[in-house]
Amino acid sequence: MADITAPAYRVFPIIPALKPGAMEGKGPFVAGEKLNEALGFPGQLVEDWHDRAIGKMGDLLSKYRSLKVFMDACVHCGACSDKCHYFIGTQDPKNMPVARQDLLRSVYRRYFTLPGKLFPKLVGARDLTREVLDEWYNYFNQCSECRRCSVFCPYGIDTAEITMAAREILDTVGYGQKYSNEIIGKVHKIGNNLGLPGPALLDTLEGLEEDVKDATGIDVRFPMDVKGAEVLLITPSADFFAEPHIDSLIGYAKVFHATGTSWTLSSMSSEAGNFGMFIGNYDQLRTIAMRIRQAALELGVKRIVVGECGHAWRVAYSFWNTLTGVGEGADANDRFAQMLQKQLDHRYKQPAHICEFTWDMIQDNRLTFDKSANDKHIITFHDSCNVARGSSMGDLPGGQFEIPRNIIRAVANNFIEMAPNTTREQTFCCGGGGGLLTDDLLELRVKGALPRMEVLQQAVDEHGVNFMATICAICKAQFTKIMPIYGFDRKMVGGVHQLVSNAIQLGPK
Amino acid sequence: MASIVFAILFYLATLLLVVGLLYRISTYARTPVPLKIPTTPAPKTTGGVVLRMTREVVFFESLFKANLWIWGLGWLFHASLLLVILRHLRYFTEPVWEWVAFIQPFGMYAGITMLLGLCGLWARRMFVERIRYISTPSDHLMLLLLIGIAASGLMMKFAAHTDVIAVKTYFLGLMHFEVGMLPADLLLMVHLSLVVSLLVVFPNSKLLHAPGVFFSPTRNQKDDSREKRHLSAWAAKLESEK
After folding, report:
1. Residue A298 lies in a domain
2. What's the pLDDT tens digit per position in A314-352?
3. Is Transmembrane there in the keyword field (chain A) (predicted)?
4. Domain count, chain B
5. Looking at the structure, do residues A312 and A381 belong to the same domain, yes or no?
6. Is the residue at A2 inside a domain?
């Protein structure tokens, strides 16, 4: 770890030259037997991996139109080729989105298309060999599923969909990734990704109540398992103890307190994150999401609000309604969804992002702020990939960009944008998303952060920026880890609700 | 002899193209979309999606964001190709439709700009390191095929005229299942052979990007996941099994 250094900033953001093989063999640790079996996958690479992998590919091609169309449609135009942060940082050509896709597409062509069966060399089709399988493992675990490439593709080909399919195939043959499968195991066994058991969680929350009381003199509550509460807060478990995440959790609690909203956490469902998406496994994605439905039904809440977490918000916003019925607009005879949707209060968005909740309250003049409390900060905002390109907020397209910025402007005086082709829908991934936030991938994470660090440095040099706000637990964890390697203070990164927490006025108005 | 061979080839190629495309399109249409995955920000209404798709198909909006060179060359080629194809309708209609007659001169120049666009795209494929890296032999051949079609067509127009009236009579005949006489002209044979190849290759290659783009869920889905429950058949089954 000590020998990992930050790559040099590009003087001018030129497209890097290719360094073939630069990241070969630098994939993450392979999952062991117990981790795989706990999720119903084979413990280790099965004997007939070849046939099973091709079989699974055929199965996925028949289940996902995205995969089917994306396998056929690519024309190798190269529009995406310089758009991936991992390619920019590592210069490995197989980290170009199109080349990453082609690792799978070449096999698709060989086994599922006529030209690939007849003239494999001509159309770049390959047999599935052990080398190819290893290459899949290596490079599909160097994609953070951030969807940046999909913004630029003339056919909307989303490498994330292809990475998910590849990981699903790998898991099917017993070749899973340790970090993701371990985390999914924990969420099933203990209730959250970090493996915090209920009693420890209660302890932490009581400690937080004392801390806030000491700091503000006010009894801000952090309730757990309160039946009949109005709001169920589902937040990434990192918010319970990691720095700087916890400061945002305090921020949510203060917003609920100041607006007199009754709310609760759930000890059974104490995790917003859903790594089922990262490994592309629908059953896992669904099973993990079902915990939220169960908690909502058991606690009888009227609203479900999601804390600052990027991929969790994508799953919540885009998938929860499909997976669990958390949302609205189910058919009248859809008993599964109606059971929950009848309980929820549809004057509000279901689910809602905590930023939507806070912004609504700000607009209703139910919160007051002392903006000067944030005057020590010159703030910029890092759009998190899954929020930016896989979800929305509010009523208008692009609300996912405007609402967090509106909140920052409402609670602080100094806000600066980073370079325009690196924010909003064109934002760069932090370098740690998609199930890659593990120390065995630290080199990749450091290199993948390069494009973001470059523009942050620019904002620091030009505007004296000293705080980068973001609304994602993975972004926060990744940046606090890799920013020191780039020479930044790790305290520079924090949540939007951390800023809210600094400025909010809790006393009588 | 050539007349009969080409008649058979064109009937076969057309059949393969139509059947192949229908098969592909029906596969795309039948494959479920279990999750909402529009690349956001995405339109919230059907009208918005129609607009987004139109911008994508007519102006190559995403490609424009990506790279001005690829966009410029690609758009030049595609727009020219469209004009050229429309211009060719004159060989299949009698009397020639008015608007087809009107675009004839534009179609003529479009042949040239099409060739320019193709050569530019091929140059990128050869000289830009990243794009050379991702290119397969078929990527080069596909461009060569199109360049061959454009070049042979242009040569018939500007260098060695062929008897277009006879060609037209031949194709009008084919449309009524009558095989007439095709002028024995080398350039014409080359041009027609390449076109036949293109028709056959189309439904079996990356040229499927043309129908594919309309089925791309990241582009054609509405952003209404919270407002309307989206459920595919196989995903719904998971609920009833419980």
Report:
1. yes
2. 999 999 999 999 999 999 999 999 999 999 999 999 999
3. no
4. 1
5. no
6. no
- Could you give the number of structural domains in chain A? 3
In a domain, B95, yes or no: yes
Tell which of A176, A204, A222 closes a domain. Answer: A176
How high does pLDDT run on average in chain A? 96
Has residue B133 been placed in a domain? Answer: yes
Quick check: bond before A351 cis, omega within 30? yes
Quote the CA–CA distance of A175 and A76 in Å, as a whole number. 29
pLDDT digits (tens, 9 = 90+) for B144-175: 999 999 999 999 999 999 999 999 999 999 99
CATH number of the domain residue B57 falls in: 1.20.950.20
Cβ–Cβ contact B175 with A under 8 A: no
Domain co-membership, A321 together with A407? no
What pLDDT shows up at residue A3? 75
Cα→Cα distances A80→A16, A392, B134, Å: 14, 23, 11
Domain boundary among A329, A360, A391: A360
How far is Cα A240 from Cα A491, in angstroms, rounded to an integer? 18
Closest partner residue to B32 among A63, A400, A425, by Cβ?
Answer: A63
- In the predicted model, is pLDDT for residue A2 greater than 80? no
Residue A464 burial class via C-beta count within 10 angstroms: exposed 0-12, middle 13-18, buried 19 and up:
exposed
**Residue B94, domain member (yes or no):** yes
| Closest residue of chain A to B133, computed from CA coordinates | A93
User: With an 8 Å Cβ cutoff, are B229 and A121 in contact?
Assistant: no
Q: Are A28 and A178 in contact (CB under 8 A)?
A: yes
Same domain assignment for residues A146 and A241:
no
Helix (H) or strand (E) holding A493: strand A493-495
pLDDT at A10: 86
Q: What angle do CA B229, B234, B236 make, to 5 degrees?
A: 40
0.90 exceeded by the pTM? yes
Domain membership flag for residue A162: yes
Contacts of A381 (CB under 8 A, 6+ apart): A404, A405, A408, A415, A417, A418, A423, A468, A469, A470, A496
Regarding whether A455 and A378 lie in a shared domain, the answer is yes
Task: Using a CB–CB cutoff of 8 Å, tell me whether B72 touches chain A.
Answer: no
Per the CB < 8 Å rule, is A425 touching B41?
Answer: yes
Instruction: Tally A–B CB contacts below 8 A.
Output: 222
Can you tell me which residue has the tokens 């996902």? A64
Task: Please check whether residues A191 and A324 belong to one and the same domain.
Answer: yes
**Interface confidence (ipTM) of the complex:** 0.96
Which domain, by its residues, includes A209?
A: 187-360
* pLDDT tens figures, B5-33: 999 999 999 999 999 999 999 999 999 99
A346 lies in the same domain as A410 = no
**What is the rounded distance in angstroms from the CA atom of residue A17 to the CA atom of residue B39?**
29
With respect to residue A9, please indicate whether it lies within any of the assigned structural domains. Answer: no
Examine residue B1 and state whether it is found in any structural domain, yes or no.
no
Spatial contact of A456 and A468, defined as CB atoms under 8 Å apart: yes
Mutate to test the interface with B, among A63, A64, A72, A150 (most CBs of B within 10 A): A72
DSSP summary character for residue A359: H
Instruction: Identify the pLDDT of residue B93.
Output: 95
CATH for A160: 1.10.1060
**Do A202 and A279 belong together in one domain?**
yes
Whether the upstream peptide bond of residue A244 has omega within 30° of 0, thus cis, is: yes
Q: Quick one: A96 and A215 in the same domain?
A: no
Domain hosting B80: range is 45-220
At position A61, the amino acid (one-letter code) is L
The pLDDT of A27-56, averaged and rounded, is: 97
Q: Give the pair of three-digit tokens for residue B33.
A: 């979309």
